[in-house]
Design brief:
- The chain has about 350 residues and is α/β, with parallel strands linked by helices.
- It has two domains: about 220 residues, 3-Layer(aba) Sandwich (Aminopeptidase); about 110 residues, no CATH class.
- It is about 20% helix and about 25% strand.
- Strands 1, 2, 3, 4, 5, 6, 7, 8, 9, 10, 14, 17 and 18 form a 13-stranded mixed beta sheet that branches. The chain has a five-stranded mixed beta sheet with strand order 11-12-13-16-15.
- α1 packs across α6.
- The longest helix is centred in the middle third of the chain and has 15 residues.
- The chain starts with a strand and ends in a 5-residue tail after the last strand.
């Protein structure tokens, strides 16, 4: 059965369209009319929810799902599975999102746009179906380890995340992401699977999805501190639109050091050089979870050099200028002992 939402954006299916699993992410727009929610039955009725391609150029989730579903072509799934396939028009062009589109991982909140109404319908559908676990699969552009993100420190969230990686990031901003919305319904996790196109990222996501399909429940007792490396995102760093960006030898008002993404998930000492900024240029925009300007806490700008003012751990530093403009330069994190958090 096929249904179309009131916004005409979302198609809801109760079976996989013929030939869908043979398509690359860039070909999905030839077969689907837009964002699509597909419900598949399984031996356990409470569904596993998986979202892919919220960013059109992050394809590991789609490839992992295809591999998983090919295994169950002739047998029942261990658990019902609901799949949300997001921005296929951006995927057709290998882009995060198209000009004029919102970021599909920033519309899972109140709002009157068509995309907000679409995600609200997805949430309502999964609430009615008593969703078991939510998994949102992403890639990133810089040098990062595979890690999982959560928006709650409840034990079942951390057990879920730790099944993917002992490196776990807890964050509360941005609060418009898919995992935040679903964390109000069930244990929810975001997977960061490295750069798109890396076979290990696909294999890692596939193995995680397969294991979650066989889960009966998630433990509710606390993890041992030996089993998890937990970080808390405390600030987001953006580059003001008026400031040009460069890396290494590039000429720009803001010139980050070459291979700056090598710093991701490294514990940087105070005084670490990150880049240089021209005299008179607007400094980096650094906001904490409350939206307050905290740039002076984390960075100094003496003699045009951008240096860390205190020890910190960055994540998702990237040399992709498009991603910097569309999202951010990086996030700043602190290591935490969740048992004392």
């Amino acid at each position: 059965m096929e249904r179309v939402s009131e916004t005409r954006m979302l198609t809801i299916l109760d079976a996989l369209p013929d030939g869908l699993l043979a398509l690359e992410a860039s070909q999905l727009a030839q077969r689907l009319s837009g964002p699509t929610l597909i419900h598949l039955p399984g031996k356990r009725s409470a569904p596993l929810f998986v979202s892919v391609l919220l960013h059109g150029n992050e394809v590991s989730g789609w490839l992992a799902l295809c591999k998983l579903l090919r295994e169950y072509r002739s047998s029942a799934l261990p658990r019902a599975l609901s799949i949300f396939i997001g921005n296929i028009t951006a995927a057709a062009q290998g882009r995060r999102h198209l000009d004029g589109q919102p970021d599909y991982n920033r519309v899972w909140s109140d709002g009157n746009g068509a995309e907000h109404l679409m995600t609200r319908q997805v949430i309502d559908e999964m609430c009615l179906r008593k969703v078991f676990v939510s998994i949102d699969i992403h890639n990133n552009t810089g040098t990062n380890p595979h890690y999982a993100c959560v928006n709650s420190l409840a034990p079942e969230f951390l057990h879920l995340a730790q099944r993917f990686s002992r490196t776990v990031v807890y964050f509360l901003r941005p609060d418009t992401v898919q995992s935040m919305a679903f964390s109000r319904l069930c244990p929810a996790v975001t997977l960061e699977c490295g750069r798109p196109g890396q076979p290990f990222g696909v294999e890692h996501a596939y193995e995680f999805l397969k294991s979650c399909l066989h889960l009966e429940h998630l433990p509710q007792q606390s993890l041992s501190v030996r089993d998890i490396d937990l970080f808390h995102t405390v600030a987001i760093v953006k580059v003001p639109q008026a400031v040009t960006i460069g890396f290494g030898a590039d000429k720009a008002a803001l010139q980050m050091v070459a291979d700056v993404d090598r710093f991701n998930f490294s514990e940087l000492a105070s005084g670490t050089l990150l880049g240089r900024i021209e005299r008179g240029a607007v400094s980096l925009d650094v906001r904490n979870e409350q939206g307050e300007d905290v740039g002076d806490r984390y960075f100094s700008y003496q003699d045009g050099e951008i240096r860390t003012r205190i020890p910190l751990v960055p994540s998702m530093l990237t040399q992709d200028k498009k991603v910097v403009r569309q999202d951010c330069l990086c996030y700043l994190m602190e290591r935490v002992n969740y048992l004392n958090a």
